[in-house]
Amino acid sequence: MRMRRKNNLNERIDASSSNLLGRLFSPTLTDIIQRDGGDKTLISARLNLQSVFENNCPLELEIGCGKGGFITETAARNPSVNYLGVEKSANVAVALLERLDTQNISNVRLIIGEAEYLLTALPPLSVRVIYLNFSCPYPKGSYAKRRLTHPNFLRIYRQILAPDGVIKQKTDNQKLFEFSKNSFNENGFVITNVTDNLHDSDSNIDGGVMTEYERRFSNMGLPIHYLEARIAKSLYG
Fold first, then answer.
1. d(Cα 11, Cα 186) in Å, to the nearest integer?
2. How far is Cα 95 from Cα 77, in angstroms, rounded to an integer?
3. Global pTM?
4. 76 close to 144: Cβ distance less than 8 angstroms
5. Class of domain 9-236
6. For the chain, where are the alpha helices, taking DSSP H only?
7. What is the mean pLDDT of residues 61-74?
8. 67 and 46 Cβ atoms separated by less than 8 Å
9. What's the CA gap between 55 and 82, in Å, rounded?
10. In 181-203, which positions are buried (b, 16+ CB within 10 angstroms) versus exposed (e)?
11. What would the pLDDT profile of 188-210 be if each residue is shown by its tens digit?
């Protein structure tokens, strides 16, 4: 079920836009741009990350950051790291923008838009960690290309990840997890720290910050699947 559009959405975004870098959509998606507020600048050139964050700290990226609970808590724990959230729904992302306005967190920025256009915005080899937290599983086979671990997305990640970079995935969906493991293995990634029951482990391999969905699913007794994937060193020559 689609979330009802929030009242005064564009006005709320404008009022909390100091941490919004812009919008990232295909220029042909005018219906999406207009629905989510076409008055905001579309990103058409790669960002100068040093200028954006006013430092040279490493960058970590959460794709599908939702309302921002995970990225803001992670950023607060790691003030010497920069964080960029990508969320395609302005209706959801406005909660993160307003959260950043009320909390003293200076190392988080947001892009509203589609992950398939990340190469437009991010320089090559610029991201140390990509977080894929409870991404939509798109269970129908005909929608497989929309999954954030489909080979089409992995080709993008391979270009923006630093040589020592890592993708960290959490999901409650076992079928998506199996799909992801196969996709990583078949597209030049090496999987480590894989578990089918993250919270039954004593290792704290994920850093211990929970997302909103993760907390809900854990309270329901559902297992959380987790893995880390790195680009095979042979691909860097």
1. 45
2. 20
3. 0.90
4. no
5. alpha beta
6. 9-15, 30-36, 49-53, 69-77, 90-102, 118-121, 151-160, 174-186, 212-219
7. 96
8. no
9. 9
10. bebbeebbbeeeeebeebeeeee
11. 999 999 999 998 865 678 788 99
